[in-house]
């Protein structure tokens, strides 16, 4: 589907629908009049087929205990074959209510209180929360910007592992907020370090379908033909791709049988939740029929990115917009124009934008902002207009 059709057919007004992004601005930012470009969901309705399937199920009127549809895995597998060429096996799969919940669960199951867990900031802030809330020791190895490209600092990463002996590494792939889609050789290098030092890898691949043209997602599962399978747990979900976060359906993939048994034993004790009937139905139908919709979505994100980058850098030549390879989240360095301590005053109070502030992702990233691009172009144009005017003032 072309982007004009996608935008025309699927753009939705979300105000007053109990949307976190639109209706919690007063609570979260202290100002209900802001234009929201923060939390990672979209102003786009799901594919028509998904809406119809949910409506039909709702009309049935019975929402008792259900079972996983026999077609669920085949639908997922079909999607994978068409889009990512990652071979997941059904026996690796269990369900959860969200990827963040799974971060907490995996930390609980595979580490002990006081154990170290390593992450690479700037990174999705619930990685920090999960480690700290679970009373594990936070170890960080910052991603570096080298020649305007974000890369892992493998020497530092290995040294931190030697110094702190973490039990777990949480990888963000594709990377939120830096927009990197890690290449196979980059993943192979970091996974080899973890293998060498026996650090279990939790790979958060929730953004795997949001990959811009010219880039190819590589799951940790497929790196070097599955060399690292035994040391890997993958968490992903259809929720970013199809805007389904509110339906609470996500995946946990554990290829190694021993680790899987350990997780299942843990889950028996701590995780007796049923899965989401509506979440699974929506995902299954989206996997089966959402290709055309997803094409329109990607074209829209890509166009919004090129527009925002071109406009920002034309008006404010020293703004640095990170290359966007994947995710719909644009990472922008405003430090050339705004002192890091004044960011909120300019971006929120003057430009009237609700965005994710850089320091949420790393204390070193004050002065950066993250802008959500998964919205109709009119919102992006308005956001950039407001930002440019506020900075120039
Ligand atoms: C890297 C990453 N993991 C997890 C999530 C949230 O996942 P969930 O809503 O399934 O908890 C997000 C949402 O933006 C994310 O960017």
UniProtKB/TrEMBL annotation:
Q: Which CDD domains match?
A: AAT_like
> Where does the sequence pass through the membrane?
none
Keyword annotations: Lyase, Pyridoxal phosphate
Protein origin, superkingdom:
Bacteria
Concerning Pfam families, the annotation shows: Aminotran_1_2 (PF00155)
The coenzyme or cofactor needed here is: pyridoxal 5'-phosphate
What residue stretches are annotated with the Aminotransferase class I/classII large domain? 47-387
Q: What is this protein called?
A: cysteine-S-conjugate beta-lyase
Source organism per entry reads Candidatus Enterococcus lowellii
